[in-house]
Amino acid sequence: MKNLRLKSARAALDMSQQQLADAVGVSRQTINAIEKGDYNPTIKLCLAICKALNKTLDELFWE
Amino acid sequence: MKNLRLKSARAALDMSQQQLADAVGVSRQTINAIEKGDYNPTIKLCLAICKALNKTLDELFWE
DNA sequence: ACTAAAAGTAAAATATACTTGACAAAATAA
DNA sequence: TTATTTTGTCAAGTATATTTTACTTTTAGT
């Protein structure tokens, strides 16, 4: 299922998928796939995304 | 680095690594490796572990 | 001490997260 | 409209999470 909280948090900081990808060191397609819900990232990547967006794991990835 | 919070939460419920592994559908070695800190699990597995141990992502995996 | 269960560890195989490159669709701005 | 950026999506490859089998070491019980 889609991760709209991630998409929303990124938009709130006016970051593109490419900018977030660069900030956490992955490809743009990986960010796109996570937002789309295509596959589950590793906890390490989730933590990097949280720090880049100033959010916690529970805020972005708890269901 | 070791995940002592996970180890502690499991011990608090008196569960063995095997029991937790069965509860979340992975091998015992995977649980052992996560507690040992050998590699990073997927967010899906982290969520399953949290639910099995009645903890949140932030409680077990936030650094 | 003896026994059994639990935990630690390792190598080889498999499943899947992630990359790279590329192209089209949609959005934003001139 | 036209140009530019952003997003969506796909296929093939690479990196790594996870499994299986197996063995040793601790821990807990009797």
What does it look like?
Two copies of one chain form a homodimer. Helix content of chain A is 67%, strand content 0%. Chain A is mainly α and 63 residues long. The first copy, chain A, has a single domain (4-61), classed as lambda repressor-like DNA-binding domains (434 Repressor (Amino-terminal Domain)). Chain A is globular, with a radius of gyration of 10 Å. Chains A and B meet through α4 and α5 of A and α4 and α5 of B.
Mean pLDDT of chain A: 96
CATH class of chain A: Mainly Alpha
| Residues in β-strands, percent of chain A | under 5%
In CATH terms, the superfamily of chain A is lambda repressor-like DNA-binding domains
CATH architecture classification of chain A:
Orthogonal Bundle
Uncertain segments of chain A of ≥5 residues (pLDDT<50)?
Answer: none
Cα end-to-end separation of chain A? 11 Å
Please tally the helical runs of chain A, counting DSSP H or I stretches of 4 or more residues: 5
Helix and strand sequence of chain A: HHHHH
Name the pair of protein chains with the most residues at their interface, and give those residue counts. A-B, 13 and 13 residues
Topology:
Two copies of one chain form a homodimer.
Chain A lengths: L3 H9 L4 H8 L3 H9 L6 H11 L3 H5 L2
Helix pairs in contact in A: 2-3
The structure holds a DNA duplex (30 and 30 nucleotides).
